[in-house]
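Worked example (supplementary).
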Amino acid sequence: EVQLVQSGTEVKKPGQSLKISCKASGYTFTNYWIGWVRQMPGKGLEWMGIIYPPDSDARYSPSFQGQVTISVDTSISTAYLQWRSLKASDTAIYFCARHVAVGIAQGWFDPWGQGTLVTVSS
Amino acid sequence: DIVVTQSPDSLAVSLGGRATINCKSSQSVLHSSNNDNYLAWYQQKPGQPPKLLLYWASTRESGVPDRFSGSGSGTDFTLTITSLQAEDVAVYYCQQYYTAPYSFGQGTKLEIK
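After joint prediction of all chains, the assembly is encoded as:
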């Protein structure tokens, strides 16, 4: 069974750094892109970006470029989403998901992790 | 960037009834090389992550009931749910994967009338 298991809830202060994780199992990690999606409180889904594990080729939405870093550790089949300096507006649930690519990087997300709630508050 | 807009924002349908959700992209997502529409649909139930329902606009993911169907081409798409059941209460999202960033619609909340 393909599974993505994300790290737990985080409560941080503005200006702090954070790295959340997404551990994949049940498939060959290096055969699929993996991505991240933001869901702000009570809002819809926002596509943040994807990464190709074999070479760490990362594609970001312009809305998130420079704001976050997506990375992977293929030795432990884990993807990461990282912030250097959090803002209150980063408060959201963050989902990782396996990206089923059908072109160079085109594709849909399936399955999804359970989500990581990040709260940024002073 | 391609903007994806869903309508309505919410709807209420009787048990056993039919729900129709529309999705419109600001540019065509029909790829001329393969004649496929690069559009997916997801279902998100309260407190859960999204779940893939359909891809290529009309291909059901394994295990998805045939009550769920997708149609449309180019810029206009529809998700239809027939014989509505209580377990179908959720927010439904469409997503284009034609051009990065692979944007989602704003979501349509489906409730029971």
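Two points are worth noting when inspecting this output. The radius of gyration of chain B is 13 Å. Chain B has a mean pLDDT of 97.
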